[in-house]
Amino acid sequence: MKKSIVLVSLLICTVFAKVSAQLPVKATNIAVLNTDSLLSKKIANKMADSLKLSKSQKANVLAINQHLSDMKARARKEAMGRATLGKRLQQIEGMRDTLYKDVLEPAQFEIYRKAKRMLINNTRTDMPIISVPPTKK
Fold first, then answer.
1. φ and ψ at 100, to 5 degrees?
2. Average pLDDT, whole number, for the chain?
3. Nearest residue to 65 via CA among 26, 112, 119
4. H-helix or E-strand containing 53?
5. Which residues contact 98 (CB under 8 A, 6 or more apart)?
6. How many CA atoms are closer than 13 Å to the CA of 53, on its beta-carbon side?
7. Cβ proximity of 61 and 100 under 8 Å
8. Are the beta carbons of 100 and 109 closer than 8 angstroms?
9. Which tens digits make up the pLDDT trace of 106-117?
10. Are 61 and 43 in contact (CB under 8 A)?
């Protein structure tokens, strides 16, 4: 009797452990999808406010953001090395300006580009500088 209780308990624990191990992966995937969607909306809202976008421009920017986000998600799912994935993600991100240029007015696009350059430059200057001491001969 005690052996059967122990075996049933062990079986229940094993099943529970397997199910629990799978849940975070699914929850993570849902969280990433929700995060990507929220980020796409946040970017579109920020651009709409700062560039005074029309409703159709805002809708187009949101569609572009979601499309690029979907492309990145597909690239992450494909089996490829880290370096290849990095290059692919850069290619996808490189499409953003071209797509935005078709939606934004020239003055809006110039403001967007200047803001993007400032953001990139500030991000890069905030990074710590690693210096390598010269080698002695």
1. -65, -35
2. 75
3. 112
4. none
5. none
6. 22
7. yes
8. yes
9. 999 999 999 888
10. yes
